[in-house]
Amino acid sequence: MPRPTGRVLTLLELLQSGGTRTVAELADRLGVEGRTVRRYVDQLIDLDVPVESVRGRYGGYRLAPGYRLPPLMLSDDEALAVLLGLVAGRRAGLMPTERTASETASAKIRRVLPPHIARRLDTLLEALAFTHQPDDFETANAGVLLTIADAVRHRRPVSIRYADRDGRRTERTLHAYGIVAHAGRWYVTGQDARIGEDRTFRLDRIADARALPGSFEAPVGPDPAQRLLSAFATAQYRHEVTLRIHGTVEQIRARLPVSVANLEECEPAAGEGPAAERWLRVELRAERLDWLPPVLAALDRPFVIERPDELRDLVIALADRLASYARQASVMSDG
């Protein structure tokens, strides 16, 4: 059971994370009753921490704007976690700020570390390698990200100015369900209130986000990550592909994940386990088809192409090229 002093410090940490916290929320996080939260707030005020009381429906407590906290103190493990998080986030393209922000943050932390800890961390970072180079992704605006996160949490509508892939700009009212980091980019899933349909938006294409009055009920069903993957798999592209592949679900998903293809799983036959090999229908959409023949070859399972005929021609062409290469290697070795 945490001691009262520990709970007061935890309360300070919750408040310094930003925003207004309701009494009910703080009581739940601290494991105490509402009147105990108010007593802890009074103790912070006695310590000259400027905690403000916010009235109204979404009222609660917050720190006064501009309040500067005492110097940051990190343990060895905490310093390692922060620096590695900054490095990994930058490499994955998931920093919601300009790249220089993470670099300057790393430099500031390293400057205040004791020399022996800094040397050990430098040794680790020098020895650390990644299997791919970071992609040059557009970064999301930190203010937009935080505004939408607050809208998700409190189920409030948010007005966004959005530019689509063709650069067309529109203003929309979004009921945001959640924020998802995927393949080096940030996305928000939610309902476009004007048309009443679910949509997925890239955060780096949102120029501005502004909270609106009111609230909405989040729908039951798939979580935001599943909604995003389903949206990718069913997006409108130039080609609609339908295949039948003989294999297990795991074998097919290893090459055609949920974000790429929809898989229609048939009920196992009598005496057949769920992991048994059987014919499964696979549907996907693609802007180009040239990447699919190598994927099907790597899958190494029997398959039938139902549509389009163009894909069948590409697979035959790949098979002819591979056979030609194999014969050429044989001739060269005989010579």
Describe what you observe in this structure.
With 335 residues, the chain is α+β, with helices and mostly antiparallel strands. It has 11 helices and 11 strands. The strands form 3 sheets. The chain has a 5-stranded antiparallel β-sheet with strand order 6-5-4-3-7. Strands 9-10-8-11 form a 4-stranded antiparallel β-sheet. The protein has a two-stranded antiparallel ribbon with strand order 1-2. Helix 2 packs across helix 3, helix 4 packs antiparallel against helix 5 and helix 10 crosses helix 11. It is globular, with a radius of gyration of 27 Å.
Strand content: 15-25%
Structural class: alpha+beta
N-to-C SSE series? HHHEEHHHHEEEEEHEHEEHEH
What is the residue-mean pLDDT, rounded to a whole number? 81
- Low-confidence stretches at least 5 residues in length (pLDDT < 50)? none
Strand order of the largest sheet: 6-5-4-3-7
Largest sheet: 5 strands, antiparallel
Gross morphology: globular
What oligomeric state is this? single chain
How large, in whole angstroms, is the Cα Rg? Answer: 27 Å
Helix content: 40-55%
In angstroms, what separates the terminal alpha carbons? Answer: 80 Å
Total helix count? 11
What is the strand tally? 11
Write the layout of secondary structure elements.
Blueprint: H1 4-16, H2 23-30, H3 34-46, E1 51-54, E2 60-63, H4 76-92, H5 99-111, H6 115-127, H7 142-154, E3 158-163, E4 169-182, E5 185-192, E6 197-202, E7 206-211, H8 224-233, E8 239-247, H9 249-253, E9 261-264, E10 278-286, H10 292-299, E11 303-307, H11 309-334
Antiparallel strand pairs: 1-2, 3-4, 3-7, 4-5, 5-6, 8-10, 8-11, 9-10
